[in-house]
Amino acid sequence: MDCNDSRSFLSEEQLIYAITVPLSTSIILANVVIILGIAWNRQLHNTPNYFFLSLLVADLCTGVALPFIPLMGLNRELSFSSCMVAHIFPNFLFLAFLLNLVMVHYERYICIVDPLHYNNLWMHRSCPLALLAAWLPPLLYASLPSFGWNNWTGSDWNGCCENGQKAAALTNCSTNGTMCCSYRRVFSNAFIFLEVYGLVLPAILTIAAMTGRVLLITRGQLRDICRLHRSVERGNATSEQEHRLNLRYTRCVVAVSLTFLACWVPYLIYMHVCIVFLISDTKWSSTTHIVLSCTGIGSMAVVPLVLGLANRQYTEPAHKILQKLRDRWGRGTQGLEEVAV
């Protein structure tokens, strides 16, 4: 008996690719557009955009690895080294993406909170070191299971194969040097708890706290502007310009709130559902796991795209190319109409 029922594995694999391939393609193409926009505009070649470019590269890698992340929840026959790479590399890309996202938010947070000391920020003085700090620690932490912090033992198979019989597992899953590969064998419970509650959740809360702090500062500055405007106009009534400023701020708050709900809440749900099933040590539906993981990771990978597409400087080259194509299409259509007449 094999480690996986071939029919169920193929159906689960098809479901994963059906969900992730369109999403992964969209993420990759959007990141490529923004990266090219930054590369072509020399005015954007500065330290803040280098940090954002690093985030886009991490998001691009996450988009490439997105189809392989749900496969981590399935049992497959792999060798020890292949099993480690299949679990460690996607986890490294995810952690690198998250740390780059925190770094970008922190850099912009300091720009607003303490603009006088912004240029003296350590990240600006040593940009290569800051970029290295965003990629090296995730690689070191994600590689810990390959150095022995794992559940990969010869006697404890944790019910990996369907019949749960160790003799059959050793006989059938060890052919050609392959064994039954599962995330439970690669990642120990302590490793997962430390990653979720020591790295991932604090990073998300830090991003949320910095974003909330920026919104509060913006609200205070908006009130000061309104007071100055009233003092200049010498009136107590709210002017049309103040209404526009308040409306713009309200839209900003709504956009940030909807972005957080759409991009972070699905991943938080997926993360805590995984922890609940890990603690209870119960088997859950593979379809549920696939849908939650694809939705959670995919929605989180959209965050840099929202930040990039909202900046016209990043998308200006793409707009110019589209405008040229529209002009050519319009001239071609007009020429055909004239010939027809």
TrEMBL record:
GO terms for molecular function: G protein-coupled receptor activity. It holds the Pfam family 7tm_1. The keyword Cell membrane applies. Keywords: Cell membrane, G-protein coupled receptor, Membrane, Receptor, Transducer, Transmembrane, Transmembrane helix. Residues 30-307 form the G-protein coupled receptors family 1 profile domain. GO terms for cellular component: plasma membrane. It is found in: Cell membrane. It is a multi-pass membrane protein. It comes from the Eukaryota. The keyword Cell membrane applies. The chain crosses the membrane at residues 15-38, 50-72, 84-106, 127-144, 196-217, 252-278, 290-310. Gene3D superfamilies: Rhodopsin 7-helix transmembrane proteins. This is G protein-coupled bile acid receptor 1. The lineage of its organism: Eukaryota, Metazoa, Chordata, Craniata, Vertebrata.
